[in-house]
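Report of the visiting student (M.T.), summer placement. My assignment was to run the structure pipeline on a short list of targets and document each run. The first record concerns Pyridoxamine 5'-phosphate oxidase family protein.
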Amino acid sequence: MDASPSPEHDETPPPADDAREGLPPRADVEHLQTSECWSLLQDSRFGRIAVIHADGAPDVFPVNFATHEGALFVRTARDAKLLHIAQHPLVAFEVDGETDDSFWSVVVRGSAARVTSDDEIRRSGVRGLESWSPTAKYFVIKITAATVAGRRFPKNAGRADPPIAFEGHVRPEAPPDEPHASRGEPPQPIPHHTPRPTTDSIPIDPHREQND
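After the run finished, the structure tokens were exported:
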């Protein structure tokens, strides 16, 4: 007797949605170690610094940079970037690139400040950094990293999913307020007890007070 399962009892799992739609199988995104992120940063010379304007609006500047002892150094002119970081020192810095078979990106978050020491400029090696821009850049910005994160994924992992309109709330709904008594309800009376007379107290005769 044939012991193979009948078609109606086949336990083979259904194909994934990607296979049904003819898309390549999903590839896992590789999260890079901090040491590898810094290695990629050290091999790069071009990135993008995201800052906040003095009026609160965001902005992004493409810049050339160098790395030294856990910090990024950017050459700059006396321009808006110096004003922005003076008002809002928190910044983000992004670098990306590719190899023969993968794409990668690294994001640094930290604080930016103007470099005011000639010794620090010399030690950082930023003097040897050539800017791609023809604008003269005599000043230096230092970005001290607070967090560093990176990702890498294969080049053949691209997707073209059909877009759909977003429904729902971007932010989670706030929890409902706890029930509380209405302001229109009268307050509960506080229990009141008549104090007991002590042995030293002398009772007062109301008739005596009237006769006096």
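The longest helix spans residues 34-42. Residues 23 and 159 are 7 Å apart (CA to CA). I thank the supervising group for their guidance throughout the placement.
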